[in-house]
Amino acid sequence: MSAGTRQAAQAALAAEHAAVYGYGVAGGRVAEDRRAEAMAAYHAHRARRDALARTVRGLGGEPVAAQAAYALPFAVQDPAAAVRLAAVLEDRVAGVYSDLVRAAEGPLRREAADALREAAVRAVRWRGSGVPFPGLAERDGTGAHTGTAASAAPHGADMTNGPGPAH
After folding, report:
1. Which of 7, 89, 147, 153 could join 22 in a cystine, given CB atoms 3.0 to 4.6 angstroms apart?
2. Cα separation of 100 and 96, whole Å?
3. Coil, strand or helix: which one is 52?
4. Going by C-beta distance under 8 Å and a sequence separation of 6 or more, which residues neighbour residue 104?
């Protein structure tokens, strides 16, 4: 597979690391009636993260490591903010998976499409409404992702789409 595929897989892995972190925060603040939903999403992102680490290795790369902490896009001090964060996490994870769908072929492309769909469905559940094109909604007019909360960024930095410049 190409270097572009490996780079997109690394970005998806970084996003999953950040989503796991974000759900750790959201899960601690979400209302009791949605706690099981947050826990299920947390476990789903952990499973995707672990699978992506294996994928990156299979593509000849060294999987990007999780950061010790991630800067959140806003303060999460109550259940409403926790729900908002969960929706943002899912929307933005969908964005990196759309990149992986575009870059990959065969089974990896199918896995990325499945992950994109799952993130879009979770986002709708959290937000209560959908977006016309999940995974593309947060792109600016140039086709690049705008800053996202679902991807890796060192502590103190905004959680953008992968380490380094936005894609």
Report:
1. 89
2. 6
3. helix
4. 1, 5, 8, 9, 112
- For 67-76, the pLDDT digits (tens) are 999 999 999 9
Angle formed by the axes of helices 79-103 and 35-58, nearest 10°: 30
| 30 close to 79: Cβ distance less than 8 angstroms | yes
Alpha helix segments (H runs only) across 62-162:
79-103, 106-127
Backbone torsions φ then ψ of 146, nearest 5 degrees = -85, 175
Scan for tokens 């947050």, then name that residue: 38
* 49 to 31, 94, 140: CA distances (angstroms): 26, 14, 26
Please give the model's pTM, rounded to 2 decimal places: 0.80
Q: What are the tens digits of pLDDT across the range 124-133?
A: 999 987 666 5
Rg (CA), the chain: 15
